[in-house]
UniProtKB/TrEMBL annotation:
<dbReference type="InterPro" id="IPR009075">
    <property type="entry name" value="AcylCo_DH/oxidase_C"/>
</dbReference>
<dbReference type="InterPro" id="IPR037069">
    <property type="entry name" value="AcylCoA_DH/ox_N_sf"/>
</dbReference>
<dbReference type="InterPro" id="IPR046373">
    <property type="entry name" value="Acyl-CoA_Oxase/DH_mid-dom_sf"/>
</dbReference>
<dbReference type="InterPro" id="IPR013786">
    <property type="entry name" value="AcylCoA_DH/ox_N"/>
</dbReference>
<dbReference type="GO" id="GO:0050660">
    <property type="term" value="F:flavin adenine dinucleotide binding"/>
</dbReference>
<feature type="domain" description="Acyl-CoA dehydrogenase/oxidase C-terminal">
    <location>
        <begin position="229"/>
        <end position="293"/>
    </location>
</feature>
<dbReference type="Pfam" id="PF02770">
    <property type="entry name" value="Acyl-CoA_dh_M"/>
</dbReference>
<dbReference type="InterPro" id="IPR036250">
    <property type="entry name" value="AcylCo_DH-like_C"/>
</dbReference>
<comment type="similarity">
    <text>Belongs to the acyl-CoA dehydrogenase family.</text>
</comment>
<feature type="domain" description="Acyl-CoA oxidase/dehydrogenase middle">
    <location>
        <begin position="121"/>
        <end position="217"/>
    </location>
</feature>
<keyword id="KW-0560">Oxidoreductase</keyword>
<feature type="domain" description="Acyl-CoA dehydrogenase/oxidase N-terminal">
    <location>
        <begin position="6"/>
        <end position="116"/>
    </location>
</feature>
<keyword id="KW-0285">Flavoprotein</keyword>
<protein>
    <recommendedName>
        <fullName>Acyl-CoA dehydrogenase</fullName>
    </recommendedName>
</protein>
<dbReference type="GO" id="GO:0003995">
    <property type="term" value="F:acyl-CoA dehydrogenase activity"/>
</dbReference>
<dbReference type="InterPro" id="IPR009100">
    <property type="entry name" value="AcylCoA_DH/oxidase_NM_dom_sf"/>
</dbReference>
<dbReference type="Pfam" id="PF00441">
    <property type="entry name" value="Acyl-CoA_dh_1"/>
</dbReference>
Amino acid sequence: MEFNLSEEQSLLIETTKSFVKNELLQHEELLEKTDNLPKELYQEIKKKSQEVGLYACNMPTEYGGGGLNAFDLTLVEKELGFTSLALAEIAWRPQNILMACNGKLIDEYLKPATTGERKDCIAMTEPGAGSDLRGMKTNAVLSGDDWIINGTKHFISNAHISDFVVLFASTGKDEKGRNLLSCFLVDLDLPGVEVAKGYDCVSHRGYVNNIIHFNDCKIPAVNILGEKDKGFELMNTWLEATRLTVAATSVSRAERAFDIALDWSANRKQFGKVIGKFQGVSFKLADMATEIKL
Ligand SMILES: Cc1cc2nc3c(=O)[nH]c(=O)nc-3n(C[C@H](O)[C@H](O)[C@H](O)COP(=O)(O)OP(=O)(O)OC[C@H]3O[C@@H](n4cnc5c(N)ncnc54)[C@H](O)[C@@H]3O)c2cc1C
């Protein structure tokens, strides 16, 4: 069995690496100091990421995306993980769950999200429902030709610059009294939607999360993604891949932290020698390297 990367995959890694090195890394200091990503900088980097084909590289080629499969996308995510989350996210990979769009939702949401005309965010988490998503209170009730949505979501990444949200809400109960979930596409400029400031982060400088309130927000009945009450299945089909990308990103972050530690221990001198010569430090470095690489 061949485990080596193909020429195309190596090229993909090199392209992403050089994008990170040439277009993103130099802005990290600004974000660290100000905790703010200026709009002009965001637009400039977004345009460059579209030019090199990283923007929407996970989406279907027929709609203008890069068409990467899960493995190749993971290679890209790992390289993007080398820099700050706020910068890496400008080369946006839309929610792949949008590929479940059909009918008019394709033109209204899937295509413009892929071309970058419209931006998506995703809302599952609530103050009382994190890991336990079935415990969500946000609900949608069908009334004539509309869904009426009420509830609050929090920790929603980038909602402040998004045009619409992929929203999970309860649409009923099963025979055991557990929530049945459905997935909706909701424009964020509708009456009854309020995108509020989220929480300050201890890290991830320049990255923004929001709280979104839905108060009798009305959306067309057709704005449901997949089938009613099958939101959990939809989540499992499309969102599992993010586990891989989060893991890949974390490896890159660990590598970067290791490089910094290695560099410091090779240059910082105490008691007449570099601190990396002390076993207490070198053993730690060896353990770190082993855990990251094996
Ligand atoms: C950077 C970032 C971006 C995010 N962006 C979004 C977004 O765009 N949209 C969105 O909807 N959400 C987003 N989230 C929220 C994220 O999905 C939640 O943080 C996550 O689901 C966990 O929920 P919680 O924080 O409420 O933790 P909790 O569910 O309260 O968990 C707290 C701790 O308890 C542990 N725990 C919980 N249940 C169990 C169990 N049964 N057994 C053992 N341990 C358990 C957890 O592992 C965790 O360590 C984001 C989070 C982060 C950090």
